[in-house]
Amino acid sequence: MNLKKTLKYFSLAAVSVLAIGALVACSSSSEKKTEKTKVEVGTVGTTKPFSYEDKDGKLTGYDIEVLRAIFKDSDKYEVNFNKTKWASIFSGLDSDRYQIGANNISYSEERANKYLYASPYAKNPTVLVVRKGEGIKSLDDIGGKSTEVVQGTSTAQQLEDYNKEHSDNPTKINYTDGTIQQILANLNDGRTDYKVFERITVESIIKDQGLKNLEVIELPSDQQPYVYPIIASGQEDLQKFVNKRIKELYEDGTLEKLSQEFFGGSYLPDAKDIK
């Protein structure tokens, strides 16, 4: 091979190397652009119709499907769901194992001091559930009566505050790790006297489990309790994204559609309360 041909050969080889390098660089750049941030969601998965497994074992429910809609087609985030115990939702947020907690979660000052609240995406009035004919008609009648609660819930806090104000005749609080289905079944069978919980969940369970001994009594309230996704501290960008998407889903009718599907009616927050 003469010198001219040799130089031409090396010149072509150099061009090929540069071209391959450029393709690799472009490919690498493209991969970086498509890489998404994983958002881990902690949920109990046993509180129908908010978070539960369907007959095929797939996690679904209002909370779950709203979050799927929030992150659908996002070019920045990818959502993943994790079934866990109630208390572990919050310890997971504390350790950044989870970035979002979603399981019919209401507002409390204690949580607001530790986590970021997104906009509400449902409202769920609080009710009193009792056995028929037992004479309990309001919270004025629960002194000396027994109930089961999961520690750390808003209901537990409400009843603990009640006992501070009624120390002469407190209600009997039995702490449990049982599901709301088990708690209502125990109430139906006479093992406890009442349960304070949210209307949507208890009416769904009473219907599904055929708990014919129970009745639901509306409780007076200054405001409708809302349902929120809560976000780990320090995740302000994620909070902004979630708020933006909740507003869009409210305006395009997606939240109304999911409310009708899972709740059998319209249980949406007031528009003014969606940021």
TrEMBL record:
Alphabetized UniProt keyword annotations: Signal
Signal peptide start-end: 1-25
CDD domains attached to this UniProt entry: PBP2_TcyK
Cited InterPro entries: Solute-binding_3/MltF_N (IPR001638)
Keyword Disulfide bond included in the entry's annotation: no
Pfam families, per database record: SBP_bac_3 (PF00497)
Acetylation keyword on record: no
Domain Solute-binding protein family 3/N-terminal: 38-266
Protein name as it appears in the record: Amino acid ABC transporter substrate-binding protein
